[in-house]
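FIELD: query
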Amino acid sequence: MNDFKQFLSLEESKLDWKIVLFLILLAYAFNIAVRYIYISYAGDMPQFQWNGHLMINNNDGYTWAEGARDILAGFHQQNDLSRVDTPASQLIAFFARFLPFVSFDVLLEYLPGFLGALVVVPIVLIGRTLGSAWVGFLASLLGGMAWSYYHRTMFGYLDTDMLVIVLPTFAVWATMHAFKYKNITFFIIASLIEIFMIRWHGGLFNVANGIFIMSVIYVALFDREKNSALYLSFLIAPLLPFSLIYKIVTLIVIFVAFIGIKFETKKIWYIIGAIVGVYIVIVGFPWIKNVLLSGYFTRDIVNSDDGLKYFSVVNTVREAGHISYDTLVHRISGSWIGIAVGLMGYLLLLIRYPLMMISLPMVVLGFFAIRGGLRFTIFTVPFMAIGDAYLAYLIGKIGYRLFINDKVAKISTYIISFLIMVGFIYPNYKHIYRYLVPTVFTKKEVKVLDKLKHIASREDYVLTWWDYGYPIRYYADVKTLVDGGKHSGDVNYPVSFALTRDLISSRNMAILDVYQTEYDFKRHQDKNDYIKEMMKRYGLKDPDDLIYMLSTNIKLPKTKENVYYFLPLRMMNIFPTVAIFGTIDLKSGKRINHFFTQTNGAKKRGNTLYLSNGIKVDLSKSNLIIGRKIVPIKRFSVVAYDKSGKIHTTIQKAHPQGLNIIFMKSYNKWLIMDDFFFDSAYIQLFVFENTKGLFEPIILTPYAKVFRVKR
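FIELD: result
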């Protein structure tokens, strides 16, 4: 047993800090170099560039960019939802001021990669704390560029993810180091890191909470010294429901009490009991309640306070949806063998070094991705990489015994373990080399927004789907009704309704939504159900009556703000999803299904048209053949642009009832839909440019169109 324990030990002598620093810099340089692969090919694509620089490739990045821009400008519009008070925007603005020789566009592009790659630092330090900086170095080569972590910290992916793993991994290392060496300074450092990481992203409270719980278990099972128990008081400070300043003050008070008061051994357990009691009452119970009531456990329909039922956005966010085991494995380690070895190595580390249990909260959170979605996989990446590196090191130690010369044997350990890690790294490198992620908008779409910026005022609203809210505010400098942070079911309903209902209903809803949004801002209320407020305004008690009334010429409130519709071609791909939010029955919560599908390309054989999605069109009988069903065609529309960019439409009616076919000739795109979608504002405005006098065309391009609501 002792021989096995000795075999599992990391026996490397303590390396000089200069060597450790060199290993950190080498790992950092490697991970930065890997991220330049994206720049090497995306930089040659003009459609991804604006003002000569690559644009951001994730939607949320634009909210931090907008906030930083407004911080640097020194002002922003009232109620424009600019995130000027968030740490991410403030950090970007800080770097912009600190690096005035770097353009703002370049900073937005490169900052995520340079900050995200910093995860190599705590990974190397964790290895050193356990006994081997070499193991930490090997792990950092993989941990900084595994699939999921690379995806969310690549150049251009401007998001809180650029530090969302770096900070908690530092906290894990500092806590482990503090317990191992009984260093009060590192307990304070760990607590400060947790305080700031919770401020950086509220979700990291779960990691800080997990670190505290695992620390309590570690002390109870493996480290029952008096001071070890008292050290727990430092780790509870970040969890208290106080502001950042008061948490720091609490930490100072705990430090003063720790060094100024002599506790008797027999009273230690009373103090521990008090600490645990405070935790359970103030932190534990509220935390459990919040977890159980989170969107990850209460999917599908959600209720508003007044009893109306809406569709929850968590059902449609890809990164929050359930994932397969194969996806989980590859996003964490790049291969099945990589995660198998990583798990085995991690479990052996837990057996040999119980202190590793401090990292369990991040590992568990990563595997929660099966339920919670892609975004969680990154939490496990550093520690599966450590597991891979540890097992590679153990295999290297086996090779060590084959050599008589100790110097040669030690070198062989490094060589063998490094080569094994190269095998784990390669699948991830191969994926990165082939991974081409487009920017959020193309250059042609941004041109439309830039033109709109010079037409609309900063007080005007743009109605579009929430996916495009942040970049629209950044490029057009206008207000939006929904965005990546403001997209709950009740907020999405009016916007979805406006995009998917007939033109008069759409216009009426858009004006009412803008009016209600501004009205609530003025009353400093942002949690009212807008549909409920609209019903009150017109003295209605049944939401169905409101829906009917909106389809008529009703008296609308006056708004000083103009309302613009931004309708990109790309919305066609998600249009059925957009419709889900605005077609749900508000009383029962039942989804009202409508038919919409699209495809590119078709082949004609005789009197039958074969669409690329498997649907057939019987031209002789004007029928659609969908699987085994034969459905009559109600209308056959052809829409095309001439050389001057003017649109031409021909509509041929076939049967009184049935589905509608639209052939967008200039796009080689076929649309098949029922009457509901055919009459929708998006189809009528974008496809046909049919305004019925209710909208005014402002910017018309094949890629995105802007209309202004007539009042």
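FIELD: remark
The radius of gyration is 29 Å.
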